[in-house]
């Protein structure tokens, strides 16, 4: 600040051993010496003027002695970067007294309300001192911020617009975000033997949850140097009050903050939007050694690690505590000494509107679709709409399973039958009717080999299922349930792992298989209920055709969907999964033709399936024929070799 540089003022100088001290006589020149409350003899009582300057001519220290001024600062300013407001001795102010500028109006109001004339005189003296030494800065500020142009400042004067404790606006990952300003400081660079102001470092804070507490995390922003005047709204980070749509931003972020707080704990949610992987992509990955996330910049770096974006609609499990305790690669560290809010599941957390405004814009959770941990945008999360009607299509036996599953613990249910007859659908329907998450597991979730189940990975998955009260579905579990063989060490190990964990599993699990006859005898004693699914009869196929066609036509029943048409296509021996795929193909034909679905689209899909079955059968027959020929030649060659060996030995 030019007004503090010694060359800008008349000064008397004295030398100290370790600093250059100056007593500023000009700063006192505007004070009425006849005022009995701030007379010449009391000036030292008010201010002790040991002013230390650094090599750039910036003021380093100013000490305040007056108890009245100290009381005013404690009441009005409360806290300010670089100022020990609550000091028992003199208040030492390092660097320029920016607080006098930022709180000049509040201090003036405070002084006007004082009844004690001496106290008022001391505070007025401080204000007059501030007006004297900051007159150029104040004049520039008033001209640029309250002129005809949009509020803005020249680069060296930006500090005046950034008052510590106020809210600032920026955009993070495409989202409006609000932070609370902690401080603003200069960053210099050396050019030609001198130093040039390179950028401003804006240090702010916002609220982030670690699952147990809600605390403040630092975020730093950089404002690079620019020439001349610039409107504040042209900066990437600027005071919220100057946003052209300030009220709308506050309204939106207040709602988002309330939603963020409501999502603490464990929540099964629906998410539609872009997702970011969180550095711990699968069940088989191992947690990395902890480093520290003490700022939002570090947090952004962590998200960037192994990070890609996908946009999809999916069901997710929000569990911030598990993510922070077991998954996060960098430990979240709150600002030392800052207030934290303990998250009590039995008691609603109450935050001020300002605290809600500065809450994080995403939460961490687990994607059931991708089997990994990700972060999800708060604004794109909503409650799950469970499909209660799906259960209407199940039979009496499935309903009995639901009743048992709802009451019991440690329940293992085996569903067996050919593909596409409703085994998976049964598990999905029971989970939805129970309003519980469905956690699907398969061989690919446990490692590179489909025949090897990791004890640690499966144990982790089952523990998460218990924590989330999820229904577990081990789909196509044939590879894990098959009879153990002395020639298959990997298969035996997988079976042993699963057997051991099933013994102590205290939740509800469905196992599905197409080959019940291959199940190892040891698994039979672990299974509490078993349900067989025969191939679909024509009546069941008709119901599925009708259901999927209605979905493909947005529940608008077309005139051609008659009992006669359903009876015709239901004669085709196809399973439920194939019916679903055929309607998908038919729907694609309609979309491509920019028209509604027609009967021909369905029959075309059926014909495509017939052609595939025919080609597949021919390929299998050809391969079998080639294998038979190869085996025949091998047997003949082996016989010749044996005959040759016999002749040679004789």
TrEMBL record:
Ranges of residues in domain AAA+ ATPase: 409-537
A Pfam short name: AAA
Annotated SUPFAM superfamilies: P-loop containing nucleoside triphosphate hydrolases
GO molecular function: ATP binding; ATP hydrolysis activity
InterPro entries: AAA+_ATPase, ATPase_AAA_core, DUF7025, P-loop_NTPase
Region spans: Disordered: 1-34, 620-650
Keywords recorded for this protein, A-Z: Hydrolase
Domain of life: Eukaryota
Biased composition annotated in UniProt, kind: Polar residues: 1-18
Protein name stated in the entry: P-loop containing nucleoside triphosphate hydrolase protein
